[in-house]
Design brief:
By secondary structure, the chain is of the alpha+beta class. It contains 13 helices and 16 strands. It folds into two domains: 8-181, Endonuclease Chain A (Endonuclease, Chain A, 2-Layer Sandwich), CATH 3.30.870; 194-380, Endonuclease, Chain A. Helix 1 packs parallel to helix 2 (51-65) and helix 8 packs across helix 13 (355-380).
């Protein structure tokens, strides 16, 4: 896998650059922080005290010392081992730090899973990776497999505004996804060239699911990379319909996972999808953590998995770009990943697992698709 990827696409006054590995993304992000002159906003689910974490903290401190306003928002549940003391040099330099959803047993299930850096309201980075050493690498020889997208232009300003809303309401008081969505200006066309898709706690309509349903309804070719795969019934049905009518649907899922329960739950769907003609691949060299969808010429990149938690519970962030050039770059990246995958054979899959395997998969699916949402739904009542 190449260490750099300079391919870009420009649409709606924003330029998008594909970041094909975490090493490439981290280098570009640190450079953007060091070049910032007006503002820096950093928001992550996991931030680990480590050499790479220290590199980001030091760059943020240096930005403060240059007189740049810097704000950091970290999810308290995602980073439980990170102490308040870690941020003292940053706060002493003038930076502003907040925990999102500080520890509270009555709402522990509500998480900010977003990964975002915005510099000067003109440059932004989104993706699936967190700031921790296990992500560092090319995703093949070392480090978890992940990717991201750099944005230069107007959409970065909108991303900064969504950060501000979450930062100002980090304790979850009166915070609702409806309020957050009011910050995003809808496009005039049914499917604008670039869309900011936000999701948050709730079981109703959200922008990401709506956009997916719209694109899947007329799709000819679909490629999905999802670290944790527990899609809704409607998404599964749409994928099956595409394959049955002669379209091509390829799923790149985790062969190695940091969440074994999620991997078992995903495998509970394999048989029906394979019968419909969906191709399923499991990534082998490293743990898969990427979140990516390509539907014809539309590309989705961001923090959301195709699972119950991302689609219904977490605060998530996805970017949808309708651009043939970017879609071609994304497709090349997907094809490279396929060379490191094991393809699930439809003829042998059903006979390769015994009763105990199937039972474990069913239990995992029940816990993640039923029990976790039930707990989260109860805790959502506290978001008032």
């Amino acid at each position: 896998m190449p260490e750099t990827n300079a391919a870009t696409a420009t649409t709606t006054a924003t330029t998008f650059t594909w970041l094909d590995s975490v090493d490439v993304a981290f280098a570009a992000m640190l450079a953007a922080i060091r070049a910032a002159t007006r503002s820096v906003r950093l928001e992550f689910y996991i931030f680990e005290a480590s050499p790479i974490g220290d590199a980001f903290r030091d760059a943020l401190v240096q930005a403060c010392q240059r007189g740049v306003p810097v704000q950091v928002l970290i999810d308290a549940w995602g980073s439980p081992d990170l102490s308040d003391d870690y941020w003292r040099p940053f706060i002493a330099a003038g930076g502003k730090f907040r925990w999102f959803n500080p520890f509270n047993l009555s709402r522990f299930g509500i998480r900010n899973h977003r990964k975002l850096l915005v510099c000067d309201d003109r440059t932004a980075f989104v993706g699936g990776f967190n700031i921790a050493p296990e992500y560092q690498g090319d995703g093949v020889t070392r480090g978890w497999r992940d990717l991201g997208l750099r944005l230069d232009g107007g959409l970065a300003l909108e991303l900064g505004r969504t950060f501000d809303e979450l930062f100002n309401r980090a304790e979850l008081r009166l915070l609702s996804i409806d309020r957050l969505l009011t910050l995003v200006q809808p496009g005039a066309a049914p499917a604008p060239a670039a869309e900011l898709l936000l999701t948050g706690p709730g079981f109703g309509k959200n922008l990401y699911r709506t956009a997916l349903a719209r694109d899947l309804s007329h799709a000819r070719e679909v490629q999905i990379t999802s670290a944790y795969f527990l899609p809704t019934w409607r998404i599964r049905r749409a994928l099956g319909k595409i394959a049955r009518r002669g379209g091509k649907v390829q799923l790149l899922l985790a062969g190695k996972s940091d969440v074994g329960l999620a991997q078992m739950a995903a495998r509970s769907f394999y048989q029906r999808l394979l019968r419909a003609g969906v191709e399923i691949f499991e990534y082998q060299p490293q743990i898969l953590h990427a979140k990516f969808v390509r539907i014809d010429d539309a590309v989705y990149v961001g923090s959301a998995n195709l699972d119950t938690r991302s689609l219904h519970i977490n605060y998530e962030l996805m970017i949808r770009v309708q651009d043939r050039a970017l879609a071609a770059v994304a497709e090349q990246s997907f094809q490279r990943d396929l060379t490191h995958c094991h393809r699930i054979d439809p003829a042998t899959w059903a006979h390769s697992r015994g009763f105990l395997d199937k039972l474990k998969e069913a239990v995992a699916r029940f816990l993640l698709a039923r029990v976790d949402p039930y707990i989260a739904r109860h805790q959502m009542r506290n978001l008032r």
